[in-house]
Write a structure and sequence with these properties.
405 residues; mainly alpha
């Protein structure tokens, strides 16, 4: 959509009056560019449709001025247009196209073929052979091909069809292989097959859906975001059924990327553990290799760092080195809450994310056959608390757990 204050692109369409059907197709093209794509397309029939029905300065100057002022000139090639464009038409026939062809050829000549203003287009792929050699090496567009037509429209609007990522900051969380090679169903529509409204809405949906880390599942759009999307959908006038298809498609792709990302995390964890078992610690060489592996797998710094933190705890637990594992757990919690001291106070404990508590608890329980872990200690505390003869709960709890013995 044209932003407020943004001037629509000026486009002039040069064509020949081959037949009434051809003239109607050109009119439909100009109308579509103006109404749907908000492109300021101009053709001679607009002038002929209202008084005085002819340019005051004459058709020759009108055509010359339109070509000069246009940012782009669409040249619709047919057998007839090519003949007149190349000056091979019978004397007295097709004077308009012959005149426009002369102006266009001169402009191309003066620009030494370095301009991007003149764009050859055809209504059917079978007409590509009528594009003359002077323009044949340029990008050509087939108007009855939806993908080709919409790619042309993006070019006329001077908008990008894809976004080139910047090579800076934290690497993007991408799958380990190109998406087109992944065993997955294609989206509902490719970007080039979507209208500007659908593209705008899809960007909004992706902004909400990809707000969470790819390592975390995301199966439905949060209610507050659903309300926001409803407002956006109504503002841009997008059909609710089309909006729902876009939402489902983005969610499906998000789930697929999550699964691929999760597999990459598992691969990274496996190789990190193998390195730790071999060397017993993360040397600088291993960390360097793991950093390269992280980038190749498209993992975020945070996810990779978390794996390395837990890898050391898991390795200690696998060996049954409980005191070492206890110290590693403490260091891990200090890093989780970003505490510089060597201890945690009451406020620090409140800052520990629940997911980290659950993860640490599971590692301890899994590797101790259910003997150790936060949930085990919680159950012991509850049992001690319920004993009628207990006078000092904390003392009896410490004794029950075995701390200090």
């Amino acid at each position: 959509m044209i932003e407020e204050g943004q001037t629509p692109t000026k486009v002039f369409i040069s064509y020949s009056w081959d037949s009434e059907d051809h003239k109607e197709n050109v009119l439909k093209l100009a109308n579509t560019l103006r109404i749907v794509w908000r492109i300021d397309a101009e053709i001679d029939r607009y002038v002929r449709a209202e008084p005085p029905y002819t340019p005051i300065q004459g058709w020759d100057l009108w055509m010359s001025n339109r070509i000069e002022s246009a940012e782009f000139v669409l040249i619709i090639f047919t057998e007839t247009y090519k003949r007149r464009f190349e000056g091979k038409e019978e004397t007295g026939k097709g004077l308009g196209v012959s005149w426009e062809g002369t102006i266009i050829r001169n402009d191309i000549y003066n620009a030494q073929l370095r301009d991007t203003k003149f764009i050859p287009v055809v209504f059917s792929e079978s007409d590509l052979g009528y594009v003359p050699s002077i323009l044949y090496t340029r990008d050509k567009y087939v108007l009855n091909d939806d993908n080709s037509f919409q790619e042309l429209c993006y070019r006329l609007r001077k908008e990008r069809t894809i976004i080139k990522p910047e090579i800076e900051g934290e690497p993007l969380a991408l799958p380990s292989e190109p998406m087109l090679l992944s065993p997955q169903k294609p989206p509902v529509k490719s970007r080039l097959e979507q209208t500007p409204k659908e593209i705008e809405y899809r960007k909004k949906v992706e902004g909400y859906v990809y707000n969470d880390r790819l390592s975390e599942p995301y199966n439905e759009i949060y209610k507050i975001n659903q309300t926001n999307l409803k407002t956006i959908r109504e503002r841009i006038g997008l059909d609710p059924d089309k909006a729902k298809l876009i939402e489902n498609d983005v969610l499906q792709l998000r789930c697929q990327r999550h699964e691929e990302y999760k597999q990459n995390l598992q691969e990274y964890h496996k190789l990190a553990m193998e390195s730790l078992e071999k060397e017993e610690f993360f040397s600088d060489d291993i960390l360097s290799g793991l950093k390269e592996l992280k980038n190749n797998l498209g993992l975020s710094d945070k996810d990779a760092e978390e794996i390395l933190l837990y890898a050391e705890l898991e390795y200690s637990l696998q060996k049954g080195e409980w005191r070492e594992a206890d110290e590693t757990t403490k260091n891990l919690l200090l890093k989780v809450v970003n505490v510089q001291e060597n201890y945690l106070n009451e406020n620090n404990f409140k800052q520990i994310p629940c997911k980290d508590i659950r993860k640490i608890d599971k590692l301890w329980k899994d590797h101790s056959n259910g003997l150790f872990g936060y949930s085990v200690q919680r159950d012991i505390w509850q049992k001690v608390k319920e004993r009628p003869e207990v006078k000092d709960i904390l003392y009896d709890f410490v004794a029950e757990v075995g701390w200090g013995y």
